[in-house]
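SAMPLE LOG
Freezer: B-3
Tube label: C17
Construct: single chain, 351 aa
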Amino acid sequence: MVEIQGLNIAVIGATGAVGKQMIKTLESRNLPIKKLLLLSSARSAGKKITFKNKEYVVQEAKPESFEGIDIALFSAGGSVSKELAPAAVERGAIVIDNTSAFRMAADVPLVVPEVNEQDLLKHNGIIANPNCSTIQMVAALEPLRKAYGISKVVVSTYQAVSGAGAAAIAELKEQARDLLEGKEIEPKILPVGSGENHYQIAFNVIPQIDKFEDNGFTFEEMKMINETKKIMHMPELSVAATCVRLPVETGHSESVYVEIDKDGVSAGDIKELLSEAPGVVLQDDPDNQVYPMPATSVGRNEVFVGRIRKDLDESKGFHLWIVSDNLLKGAAWNSVQIAESLLKLKLVTIK
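STRUCTURE (predicted):
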């Protein structure tokens, strides 16, 4: 336990899409912030960001930047996290990392507070924020697991381009504008910036997020599979994922099929359960065409669930439609939520 007078918080990757949302989220919460340090690469250092009516100059992130920092929120890419997160921990900071760098490390908790907040008690300085698409799914499935048990999950995602960063958002807008004006386009970023081939995302769907693994699944799909099992402490859980990029700016959607262990459960039972679940909002009224959509979920911290149906052939199978703002619950809000949980669990206390 660390006792402090006020939180000294650092945001690494402060000028990126998620970093900006982290700053906005911190601004909207009541964490007792004594000092805020905004860090970035050398290229972005010097930019100015306003936080609670005060202007901050973004500084270059270096190992010595973390002297006196209590909580460091990382969202600047896996290579940066691998380089600087250990340096931050050595200087006494607790790292909440929003990259895939440490997610599957055995000694690093992978945390969604509504699901496995108690795992924070086992942290050794670094806490991993799960993949955005994993977060919203497990938040919706955890109430089912606790009430009925679950044995199988099959998910198809419909992911927004903001998950690939600010440059991907710009590419979507530029391509849409150019195509509408009859101009030629030259895709440069999606599906993978470092890949050999790049494809049009405007008015298109790309069934690839991240690189392909030898097993035919993409790295994004394997993240969902492995992270779900780790977060829910269910290595035996059957999980399959297909991850798809859509021309949507912000807000990931998911079609999830789940098989529960208990007999005799109805779709109404599932709806009632989720209507009371923490961090979940039930939007399920097909008669009035009420269901979750990215356009109505952007800017919200919750996970939205609807289109809940019992499978027509499997008595223990159910279908759910899950939507959330991938930059908030999928990243910034979940990270800040973890920081709040550290205070709640008295892993960091204010004098």
